[in-house]
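Final report, closing paragraph on structural work. Over the funding period we assembled a curated collection of sequence-structure pairs, and we close with a single example.
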Amino acid sequence: MDEVVRKDVVLIVDDDQIIRMLMKRALKDMDITIVEAENGEQAITQFNEHLPDITLLDVSMPGMDGFTCCEQLRSLPKGRECAIVMVTALDEVADIERAFEAGATDFMTKPLKWLLFSHRVRYILKANRTLQELRQNKNKLAKAQSIAHLVYWEWDYESDHIECSDDMFQMLGIPRQQKMTFARAMRWVHRDDRGRFKQAVRAAIRDKKPYDIEYRVLRTDGQLQFVHERTDISYEYGKWRIVGTLHDITSRKQSEQEIAYYAYYDTLTNLPNRRLFIKQLETVIARAKRYDNQFTLMFLDLDRFKQVNDSYGHHIGDELLQQAASRIRDCVRNSDMVASIAAGSDNRVARLAGDEFTVLLDNVDKVEAVADISTRLLQAFSTPFLIHDNSFYVTISIGIALFPNDGDTVQTLLQHADVAMYQAKESGRNNYQFFSESMNSYLKMRLEMEHDLRKALQNDEFELFYQPQYDVKSMTIVGFEALLRWHHPQKGMLNPDSFIDIAETTGLIIPIGDWVLMQACQQTRLWQQKLGRLFRIAINLSASQFNQNYLPEQIRKTLESSQLPADTLELEITETAMLKDVTETIPLLFALKKVGVRLAIDDFGTGYSSLSYLKNFPIDTLKIDKSFVDEIVSDRKDAAIARTIVQLAENLELRTIAEGVETEEQVKMLSLMGCDEFQGFYFNKPMPVADIEALFA
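Its predicted structure, as stored:
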């Protein structure tokens, strides 16, 4: 009869039902059993019933908080065998230390990176299984030691000869000697332990007191062996004698080392993990303060790692992380430049979390030297990663903080290095930035905006403005472009330029975009019914929205719900978003066309401007960017570009819309060129619904 294999049990403890649902969804592909609890009391009950292998424990919960719950779980009979991961939005070092003091195995910070979440849980489960096996082996070894026959030796001080049991030579892996002497015994003791061993023996002879020590023996086969030696001293037949027992503790030492490894090292990259790195950073700070030294902290993040992980799977992502760690380690530790700049310094590389790494350059404080090292790191990532016959180009962004100018505590240095790294991302990635206070202020502003943005939808703070689009020949309104506005509680009315990039980077653009789509379609349908004219509505799609596989279905459901005719909805997409991955773009565009909507290229001419895609993509409209329209009257080159776009569209049977039309001269010139439609302040600025309806009246 086959043995039933027990599935790993995951206990999710969070008072937020949505978080629990998202965690379950992220773990759906793993062969595990998931149990839920919404507070600390339920967690204890579920823990006793199901004996989970890992508990994902929220810190902030009503009633019993996560720290208290963690302590109580650890006190349960099986509490020491479970991995407990604290899930928290807190990023204070004190809170992190408190979590570990409460018994946490590790922690995750909110908002969670869902694409790396299952990967993290999988490796924590793997590490926990290994730790349990090590504990079991350690217990078995301890029992075996208590009943094992111990090898022994005996020496009367006065003679040179040491009497040994026959199995002592076999246990130590050394040749059988006709006569064992103290001098010969010293040869087998590891040279780093000889001084301590000799001192213990001499003290025993001099003071007539036994010793109890551990030391290493170098066997003839080259293996290193750990032994535990206990002695007793007695006076018999007119002679002092010393009797010792030896016990092979190599397995126990190796188990202890492996347990320490899993506690302080990342199993994927073999680099120190966050816990060990923080300890190292605390030590370096204390030493720097004591000796008035300076050092550098570098915060590294892989650019666009998420895309590789999403597109090719975790096994490719893991291999990429391993190769990236190797490049960072080799570049920093083995660089001749670093050696010459920081001779004798202590350079540490760690994997902080996910695709984030840190480099600690002890005694490297000159800006020029740090810049050289940063440049060397960037160059190390300029060549592709070769994984399973595929080439991946992944760069890094580096943030740099200097001690003590940029901070003198663990929390401050990490935060400021992270701020600088974020600025490197904002500056186009694949570069390095030194921390400055202006960066810190900018980050705080972005964090505040992100916090407010998360509440904006539920507080109904968004509003759509509409800018009319006019037919050139009839000069009548034929459509509108929907433009988002945010009524910020403190900052007032905000245009998208001040918050769209934050929405993109946080993923909030997806729910916001869905809201815009539904609102615009519903409003346009009301106008169509009220005025009996099939106005067209144009809606901008962000790159994130365009990359969603469910987009065609989302559009279809929105049209069905709003009853808007499909051919009166025009989706505007930038060239950059379209050409990001042509193999995926073409099927998606045709799927959208199958729904019946129209497709427009926004800001045409400012992106890749590869004309070949116009032949293959099912495009209906080209929008001439405002940058070409602004100087069309005074700049011959801008006029030539605009004329070329209009002629190209006409030859390809596409419609053209000129954006940003502000003067009568621009209107006349674009009309002569053959442009089909106008949009701009010369006709109307973007207006709320009430003003549009007043315009109709």
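Residues 334-346 have pLDDT under 50 and may be disordered. The two ends are 83 Å apart (CA to CA). We thank the funder for supporting this effort.
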